[in-house]
Amino acid sequence: MAELATIARPYAEAVFRLAKEGNALGTWSEKLAFIAAVYHDPQMQAAIGNPRVTANDVERLLLAISGDRIDDAARNFIQLLVRNRRLAMLPQIREQFEKLKLEDEGKLDARISSAYPLDDAQRNQVVNLLSSRFKRKINATVTVDPELIGGIKVEVGDKVWDASVRGRLQTMAVTLSR
C-alpha cells in the first residue's frame, strides 16, 4: 500500500497546486469524485480489464463519458494518467488530494467507532477533545461497531487510540502470551 501512496503523491500534489492556484479546491474535489465514480463503474472496469481494449480506447471512453462534466485541465489529467499507466492510482490520488485539501483548510478527518450509538453530547465531547489535541477543526465520521464490546476507537491520520474493551482484551492476551 505504501508504494501506491508513493506513486500517487506527485499526481495528487500537482492537482492540488493547480486547484489551489485557480482557487478551485472544491471544484477539483468534485471533478476527482466524478472521475473516480466513472473509473469504479463495473462496466468501465470490464473495459479496462479487457485485453482487446487499448489504452487509447480507455482514454477515449473516459473522456466521452465525462463529456462536459469536466474541463480541459481534467481532460489533460485523465490523459496523463492513462498514458503513464497510472489510471489505477486514481483512488489514491483522490484520497491524497482530499487530505491536502483538508490540511489546507485547517481540518482533519477522524473516524470514531463506538460499540454503541453516541448521542450528540458524547460525539461533541470526543470531537472537541480531538480539536484541542490537534489544534484543527475535526471532520468526524462516527460508526457503530458492536465487535468493540464497549468503549470507542478513534483514528486520525495514522494515529489510533483504542479505548475499547476488545482492544484492551487483545492487549491483555498479548501480554499474557509472553
Topology (SSEs and partners):
Blueprint lengths: L1 H20 L3 H16 L1 H8 L5 H12 L5 H12 L6 H15 L2 E8 L5 H15 L2 E8 L6 E6 L2 E6 H12 L2
Parallel strand pairs: 1-2
Antiparallel strand pairs: 1-3, 3-4
Helix pairs in contact: 1-2, 1-6, 2-6, 4-5
Walk me through what this model shows.
The chain is of the alpha+beta class and 178 residues long. The protein folds into two domains: 2-102, Peroxidase, domain 1, CATH 1.10.520; 108-176, no CATH class. The protein is built from eight helices and four strands, in the order H-H-H-H-H-H-E-H-E-E-E-H. The chain has helices spanning 2-21, 25-40, 42-49, 55-66, 72-83, 90-104, 120-134, 165-176; strands spanning 107-114, 137-144, 151-156, 159-164. The protein has a four-stranded mixed sheet with strand order 2-1-3-4, sandwiched between helices. A hairpin with a 2-residue loop joins strand 3 (151-156) and strand 4. Helix 1 (2-21) packs across helix 6 and helix 4 runs antiparallel to helix 5. It is elongated. The model has no long low-confidence stretch (mean pLDDT 92).
Overview in brief:
This protein is α+β, with helices and mostly antiparallel strands.
- The count of strands amounts to 4
Annotated CATH homologous superfamily of the largest domain = N-terminal domain of the delta subunit of the F1F0-ATP synthase
Mean pLDDT over the residues: 92
Order of strands across the biggest sheet?
Answer: 2-1-3-4
CATH topology of the largest domain: Peroxidase, domain 1
